[in-house]
Design a protein that fits this description.
Structural class: alpha+beta
Number of strands: 10
Strand content: 15-25%
Helix content: 40-55%
Number of helices: 12
Order of helices and strands: HHHHHHHHHEEEEHEEHEEHEE
Length: 371
């Protein structure tokens, strides 16, 4: 009977004690979150309740499973398994706590600063710092797990002796990954590109959606996702429309007849922009920028607060101006002049009937019956 009750008491007591401590801790964090609504720290710490309970349960079982007298023949394996679970759950808990602290710091910073560009820069840095901490903690946890095996501890001396050669070989093999990692850190702290920036890469226009230590994702205007290594942004030129401010100037071109009413078009452009909510009112201009023997090029300059609004202003100005020209000044639209083609020597041009239909030379007009 004792052989049955003792394992039940040890294992069941550890599980029940873990659940009670986890429940009490969660209640305390919930009350703290309700009282201190100005900081999200306590609410974010509640996300770590699962790894917290795993740490408690693994620690309690690791310290008391010897008293259970259960599976004595697998005693070493059980102890090592509990140790591995304890190390893994502890690393998970550390990552959650670090993420909560970093996120709370960013939230407090965002409340005190209203500059969107600066907030995007800090947000990018916070995201990369969180990922870097998770990577470092994960590597340390794996190393600690490996050191629990005696064979790995015995091989430690030989591994350290050949660390220089292994480091060179690993550096050559992982050259691309390491370059991307350092490029990610350079982007985070060099303020080259930030989450939410509008960029143009390889002819594609989009918004930076995600930045990691190794890759960057750009969301295009048609909801596609372009993923590229972060080393691209440190080795090749690219356009960042949000750098130094999101305000944009847009251009609209028309090819019109030389008789187009330019002054009336300037007045119409101002009327169109006054009715366009996306126009920021900074500037508008209309000029003749080029001329050909058949048409002239008319350019309109419009402004908006960001890339999305400048696109809206451009398409609205283009559409309304063409409609107005079609209805009020159709003569201003480009025309194609046509003429009869010159025939080769010896070829007689076809005669035309009174109704304008071509007719062969040997054909004679029909008798109409009229005199």
């Amino acid at each position: 009977m004792e052989n049955v009750l003792r394992p039940l008491i040890v294992v069941g007591g550890s599980v029940v004690l873990t659940l009670l401590i986890g429940w009490a801790t969660d209640r305390l964090l919930r009350k703290a979150d309700e009282r201190q609504t100005e900081t999200p720290l306590w609410g974010l710490l509640r996300r770590g309740r699962i790894p917290y309970q795993l740490v408690l349960c693994a620690a309690l079982l690791r310290g008391s499973y010897d008293q259970a007298d259960l599976f004595q023949e697998h005693r070493v394996g059980i102890g090592r398994t509990l140790t591995l679970v304890l190390i893994g759950s502890a690393a998970w808990l550390v990552v959650r706590i670090a993420a909560a602290i970093v996120e709370t710091t960013y939230t407090r910073y965002a409340r005190n600063h209203r500059d969107p560009a600066r907030l995007r820069r800090v947000r990018t840095q916070v995201s990369l710092i969180t990922r870097a901490v998770a990577a470092v903690v994960g590597v340390m946890a794996v190393a600690a797990m490996l050191l629990t095996f005696p064979a790995m501890r015995a091989a430690g001396a030989s591994l350290l002796a050949s660390a220089g050669i292994l480091g060179i070989v690993a550096g050559i093999a992982a050259q691309s990954a390491l370059s991307n990692m350092f490029a990610g850190l350079q982007i985070a702290f060099g303020d080259m590109v930030r989450i939410g920036d509008t960029v143009v890469v390889d002819g594609e226009w989009g918004t930076v959606d995600e930045i990691t230590l190794t890759f960057l994702t750009v969301r295009t205007w048609d909801e596609r996702r372009i993923t590229m290594p972060v080393s691209y942004f440190t080795s090749k030129p690219f356009e960042n429309w949000s750098r130094g401010g999101a305000q944009m100037t847009g251009i609209v071109f028309w090819h019109l007849d030389h008789s187009a009413p330019v002054e009336a078009m300037r007045a119409k452009l101002r009327d169109i922009l006054r009715g366009c909510p996306a126009w920021d009112g900074r500037a508008c201009d209309l000029s003749v920028t080029d001329a050909t023997p058949s048409t002239m090029e008319v350019r309109a300059l419009v402004t908006a607060k960001d890339a999305d609004d400048v696109w809206t202003v451009r398409v609205m100005v283009r559409e309304h101006m063409i409609r107005w020209l079609t209805e009020e000044h159709p003569y201003a639209l480009p025309r194609v002049n046509t003429a009869d083609a010159a025939l080769p020597p010896g070829v007689e041009a076809p005669r035309r009937s009174p109704d304008g239909v071509p007719r062969r030379a040997h054909e004679t007009p029909r008798a109409t019956g009229r005199t």
